[in-house]
Amino acid sequence: MKSTLLCLTSILWVVAAHNHLPDGTAVVTEPQNVVAGSPGTPWPMPKSTSEFGTVMTIDPTNFKMLVNIKNCDIMNQTVQRYMKLTFLEKCLPIDSPRNSLSNSKKNSEKNKMIKANGMLYNISVTVLGKCEKWPYLNMDEQYLLKIDSPDLPGKANLVSSTVWGALRGLETFSQIVYSLGDGKFGVNSTMILDSPRFSHRGLLLDTSRHFVPVSVLKQNLDAMAYSKLNVFHWHIVDDQSFPYESLKFPKLSEMGAFIPKTHTYSQEEVADIINYARVRGIRVMAEFDTPGHTQSWGKGQPDLLTPCYSGGKPNGNFGPINPILQSSYDFLAEFFGEITKVFPDNYVHLGGDEVDFSCWKSNPNITDFMKKHGFGSDYSKLEEYYEQKLVNILQSLKKSYTIWQEVVDNGVKVDPNTVVHVWKDPQVQELQRVTSMGYKTLLSTCWYLNYISYGKDWPKYYTCDPQEFNGTEYQKSLIMGGEVCMWGEFVDGTNLISRTWPRAAAVAERLWSVADLKDADKAAPRFEEHRCRMLKRGLRVQPGNGPSFCECDFVVS
Amino acid sequence: MKSTLLCLTSILWVVAAHNHLPDGTAVVTEPQNVVAGSPGTPWPMPKSTSEFGTVMTIDPTNFKMLVNIKNCDIMNQTVQRYMKLTFLEKCLPIDSPRNSLSNSKKNSEKNKMIKANGMLYNISVTVLGKCEKWPYLNMDEQYLLKIDSPDLPGKANLVSSTVWGALRGLETFSQIVYSLGDGKFGVNSTMILDSPRFSHRGLLLDTSRHFVPVSVLKQNLDAMAYSKLNVFHWHIVDDQSFPYESLKFPKLSEMGAFIPKTHTYSQEEVADIINYARVRGIRVMAEFDTPGHTQSWGKGQPDLLTPCYSGGKPNGNFGPINPILQSSYDFLAEFFGEITKVFPDNYVHLGGDEVDFSCWKSNPNITDFMKKHGFGSDYSKLEEYYEQKLVNILQSLKKSYTIWQEVVDNGVKVDPNTVVHVWKDPQVQELQRVTSMGYKTLLSTCWYLNYISYGKDWPKYYTCDPQEFNGTEYQKSLIMGGEVCMWGEFVDGTNLISRTWPRAAAVAERLWSVADLKDADKAAPRFEEHRCRMLKRGLRVQPGNGPSFCECDFVVS
């Protein structure tokens, strides 16, 4: 038995590098590779893999995925999805409506469990625990996948403690199966024991700077599931627009959305997205960022924002949420009361970044309030006052929360369960500082994918490690993971998927796989394969490695 | 009568600028605008516009486009297209197959030429010349568009010398008509006299580094027509792949395409693309770049490329086309004989850029040849020898040609009709030098749109002017225009349209409109409108101005 990390031959098609550069300096220099994918390799890389040197053949019309737990909707839907995804022969239509992924293959009557020479007739999926309904922080995603292993020759089997592990294991299974070209598929005998390095592997989308259609959010959830990301951080509203249709405060979107009739998320749509994520083992963590980033809130909720003053009177502009009025906190209590019901995840992201003090400073009522409370001219004390009251609201609602790093930078006392989200440079010092305060920490600083640049940029994201800072073992253990961010200034439904993927998958492997897997050149053929796989599965995923081709890139219209 | 450049109110929705920056330096600073479009404004800006302060109403079910010339396929198809595009009420499906743009509106029997109070029942299109079939360099694109002008009250009329002028005029008409919301449309009384500043307004796509499906090439031609670009420079083959299916040399694509079965352009597809471009007044200038950039040619045409030597014998690698063999020129004569028939445009782009001498230097047969011809060790003389023979082939085929600047840099004597394509920095010196040699010149240096960067980059392309260099009036007059380039290293069907547009439209206005229209801030609402219009017409066009929304961005799936 050869125990090793998967190491498949990378096929490089080397051609001369006649790269057009407009500065005229770089003429023909180095050979440029056309990176070809490596079929049958998974992304992200499992923790440990053994190979046994044999191949089993699968006839998809005579193959079953057998699950031990019954009446578990999440497993039923998962098996349906993976029966389709594992045995794709044709390219799925690009941008197809996301709900149409039903299993079109009909298993025939004669489909029975028969062990035959070299043929695999089923994979048996055993979930040791109960059918959990909602994914959560620190859920168990471990699985053991065996294909024709010495102790179970001729069989395939997947064992996990939870449905989440089964989901991840079936994704891996679907990736290591490869087409043999004649309607048959092959899978190498192997044993894979896998679990994630970090438990919070997120992706942030911003639906305020541009509206993003539900179908595109679902495509993104598909891509996340294919890459084993498990938190959709939904930065749903911001200054520019308020697309969330509140039950209690419908005016917020009626006045604050770009176009209320078309550019909003109804309660049904929000529930649909949460459920779409749930059955893929993805948490939806909603962010309602306050007290700054709230210009769009002010349109539908009068008196919520601070009136700014010029020359001794209000000038018509507004600043952050008004922290000195009890009505603000009454509103927030009611609003977050709704939010914590609509979004079932244990965590809400409270934002708290970039609070502009200039409007507060201009307002004489706030000046009075500052004096009365002995804040002097330290407006971060006022911010702290606001955050403390907001945090108390959330605690009374029995929810945990994530916050941008500024909140703790400003000394707000938060629940020890709080997750602090680091997004500023200098990255290593920030990680050091926040973990030294004992908070669970997420990293995003080096993963702002909205900052595009020319060329093959994914190795830059791939090699950034959230535990690379000076700190104790305990500090390192506080790193819960991180999040890819795709802020919305320059993306909407037209380019969100293609611009986010496959680049986000680089971070997905960093957050799932072992720390010492860091060689981007070695990873390139697997990365290419993952891109081509996503394309084949109907996602509009852009080139990542430079000149290349995929089996299914030609069907894009 | 107020004679002025169109100056429509730009609607700015000002909100605070809470831009997430990962370096933590730029917190809240300046207000950030959500740029809204300005309905009824055209892009690119016409040369001169007068407005008369009235509005006419159009009922699309009772409106005709009347054309004076009969049996002119180009005009028939154009009227069909613009009857649809002018009166779009719903968003067209994104990425819809490009041939489906048929006119779905049925004009009723009672549709007669009746002049009524404020209603417009037709536009009369008069083409003074004959029905030309093929667009060409320096074709006449001028038109005069009158809507309810004092000399023709209550009427709309478009006059041009050629079908090309009529095409451009109908595009403008379709852009200045705006929806009144109840199924009716409005158009302001106006007189527009328009013609392009430059006659060659091109866009280069590279289908070798990645394959681009025919449907996507057609979408791009639509976007070009909407922006009045008139040359599709098809960089069809290169080192990485050879997707052109040659009639005489089918092995070139059989061996040189990424996947010959799916990643090639058949003769029928090439003809289809050329015709699709033709009826939109767009030339297709094919580039078959030699002697470098030909690695993919060598696979299907043995002995075409120069064998490279190491240690006195061939090392298995190949360099540019072998310039010392008569068989190379025999092949080129036959190959370009085919190409000049397949591509009817007067111009072929011969490439000629970035010729690597290292392989030629290594080859002892080439060393002998150099000696025999008295070239010494000056390999640019050998390149000149090759180019001269290639250019002679094209002259014998009675075709004109475009070449990258290196060819004349190296002193090759080319036909005075040659168009020289400048792509290197320093831009102004290069333009100066090439025009001082008396050649017609195209600029691309500042318009390499494949070099992406974060943020609102279109003003950079918008403000680059091809006549801004020190030179005589005669030198300036040699500037034929320029080309936007979207090289294919990082684009394929998944992201080509969204990444190219609306950015390429910035260059389209530079090349069409008057030189002193240079204020990108003033242009922004029109640019936004143009983006939203392209989206409404079913093109996957990405955001250009930062946070924003379009009527039809929510339908993207």
UniProtKB/TrEMBL annotation, chains A, B:
Belongs to the glycosyl hydrolase 20 family. It comes from the Eukaryota. It catalyses: Hydrolysis of terminal non-reducing N-acetyl-D-hexosamine residues in N-acetyl-beta-D-hexosaminides. The keyword Glycoprotein applies. It holds the Pfam family Glycohydro_20b2. InterPro entries: Beta_hexosaminidase_sua/sub (IPR025705), GH (IPR017853), Glyco_hydro_20_cat (IPR015883), Hex-like_dom2 (IPR029018), HEX_eukaryotic_N (IPR029019). It comes from Limulus polyphemus. Its EC number is 3.2.1.52. It is an enzyme of class 3 (hydrolase). Residues 42-176 form the Beta-hexosaminidase eukaryotic type N-terminal domain. Keywords: Glycoprotein, Glycosidase, Hydrolase, Signal. Residues 198-513 form the Glycoside hydrolase family 20 catalytic domain. Residues 1-17 form the signal peptide. This is Beta-hexosaminidase.
